[in-house]
DNA sequence: TGGGGTTAT
DNA sequence: ATAACCC
């Protein structure tokens, strides 16, 4: 990377990145603000400070594993490694390795279409997510060693806020090391790096940390993946997919408009889903430029102020959402889709099966769920597959038995779930369900609260009298008395 | 479309 | 309890 001659950043920048830089409060935006250069180094960069407490310029990495389920399967059975491999759930190939992709297999392809395209395709069943989930958390834990601020997105993606770590490493850098700083991996658009630009330097350090993360994932877990480094989550995520398997890319601020405009449709912006995309299309908005230019007022009227403002910022590549540490899961669920479930007995058998797996998981976790939910999907001819659910608190005496393999917790839980079932489904009328799911949520840490302590009276499950009817919940549970 | 997850209303 | 979003 050749340092450019004195003069620094040019003035012909797009408005949006310039604004982000202004918000960042980075000193040294104009060349005149910098101190004199010393011979043999670039010490001025240590004087370019991001004021503490400001909503500073961040360094975010998005880590995205390559065809995650297929990788896990190839690790489990190395004989699959050089064969085209698909992971099957029901009649779908939900993901596949790159051998299979070369031969035309796509994600979420019908098994029949996939076999037709690629008769040599090897299929493994991936309906049991246990090993994927376990490997997924190993990845998150590995990333948490770099910085505790890790946000999971699904099983195979993580965001990490590297801002602090980059700051520490910059402080430790000697002037000569700074001058020799290079990027790890690709630079989006092949943009030239300017080592006199603090934002460039910080992102380069981010790219090196990203490379260390990917190396650690490979050495310790045998997994490959992509990484994207940028100043916010949106941009990090978009840029991580630019070079695709097992590569990484850093986005410098001057190229953020190019990246966002490289999208062909607004639906490709993470955060704009199926519904919002349809509503935007109805307004004549189809590409990113349309959304950028559209009247904010009208957009707010159509989508509500919250969604409107958020997605319009996204269209400029702006995303102030923090990397929120995921921590342990908020819920555990097991589901199974079925061709047809039309009797209470069938339903009960399925529910028992789902529940048995869930109880194992809850036991492993250590925390205790205080709410249980039953979810169904009814058959309906080509209507949108919406789900219905009923939930209720788990009675305290059942919660207590949850970690202990001793007592039979199945029986009372099945009783509760079947009451929820009959509350949703009129079993005296014909019915046709295509999905059953059981979810444990409202997880609480083990009850260390002792009688007579403040905790005791603040723990709703322990001080039973305070719980009846006084408190107003946003979500109203179905109580057992309602049956 | 599967078998998961999250947050907002 | 549902609806939107994510993978």
TrEMBL record:
The keyword Transferase applies. Residues 1-42, 317-338 are annotated as: Disordered. Transmembrane segments: none annotated. Keywords: DNA synthesis, Transferase. Residues 1-8 have a biased composition (Basic and acidic residues). Residues 60-273 form the UmuC domain. Belongs to the DNA polymerase type-Y family. This is DNA polymerase iota isoform X1. The chain holds residues 6 to 488 of 749 of the full protein.
């Amino acid at each position: 990377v050749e340092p450019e001659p004195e003069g620094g950043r040019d003035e012909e920048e797009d408005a949006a990145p310039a604004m982000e830089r202004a918000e960042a409060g980075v000193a040294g935006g104009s060349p005149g603000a910098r101190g004199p250069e010393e011979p043999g180094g670039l010490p001025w960069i240590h004087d370019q400070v991001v004021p503490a407490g400001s909503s500073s310029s961040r360094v975010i990495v998005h880590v995205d594993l390559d065809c995650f389920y297929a990788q896990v399967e190839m690790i489990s059975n190395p004989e699959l490694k050089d064969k085209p491999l698909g992971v099957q759930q029901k009649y779908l190939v939900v993901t596949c390795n790159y051998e299979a992709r070369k031969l035309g297999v796509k994600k979420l392809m019908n098994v029949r279409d996939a076999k037709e395209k690629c008769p040599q395709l090897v299929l493994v069943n991936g309906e049991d997510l246990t090993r994927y989930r376990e490997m997924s958390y190993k990845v998150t834990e590995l990333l948490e060693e770099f910085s505790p601020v890790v946000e999971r997105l699904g099983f195979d993606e993580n965001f990490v806020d590297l801002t602090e770590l980059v700051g520490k490493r910059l402080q430790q850098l000697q002037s000569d090391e700074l001058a020799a700083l290079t990027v790890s991996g690709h630079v989006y658009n092949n943009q030239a790096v300017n080592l006199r630009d603090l934002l460039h330097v910080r992102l380069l350090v981010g790219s090196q940390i990203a490379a260390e993360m990917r190396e650690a994932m490979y050495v310790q877990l045998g997994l490959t993946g992509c990484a994207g480094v940028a100043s916010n989550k949106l941009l990090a995520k978009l840029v991580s997919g630019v070079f695709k398997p097992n590569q990484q890319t850093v986005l410098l601020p001057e190229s953020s408009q190019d990246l966002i405009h490289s999208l062909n449709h607004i639906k490709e912006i993470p955060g704009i889903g199926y519904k919002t995309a349809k509503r935007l299309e109805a307004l004549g908005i189809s590409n990113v430029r349309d959304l950028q230019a559209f009247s904010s007022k009208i957009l707010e009227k159509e989508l509500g102020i919250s969604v409107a403002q958020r997605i319009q910022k996204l269209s400029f590549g702006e995303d102030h959402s923090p990397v929120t540490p995921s921590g342990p899961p908020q819920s555990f669920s097991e589901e199974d889709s079925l061709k047809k479930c039309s009797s209470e007995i069938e339903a009960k058998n399925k529910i028992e099966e789902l529940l048995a797996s869930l109880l194992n998981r809850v036991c492993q976790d250590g925390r205790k769920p205080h709410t249980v939910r039953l979810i169904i999907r009814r058959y309906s001819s080509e209507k949108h597959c919406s789900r219905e659910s009923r939930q209720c608190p788990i009675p305290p005496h059942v919660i207590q038995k949850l970690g202990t393999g001793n007592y039979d917790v199945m029986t009372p839980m099945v009783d509760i779930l079947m009451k929820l079932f009959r509350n949703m489904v009129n079993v005296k009328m014909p019915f046709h369900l295509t999905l059953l799911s059981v979810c444990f949520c409202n997880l609480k840490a083990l009850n260390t609260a002792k009688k007579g302590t403040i905790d005791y009276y603040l723990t709703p499950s322990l001080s039973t009298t305070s719980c009846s009817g006084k408190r107003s919940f946003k979500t109203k549970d179905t109580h057992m008395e309602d049956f």
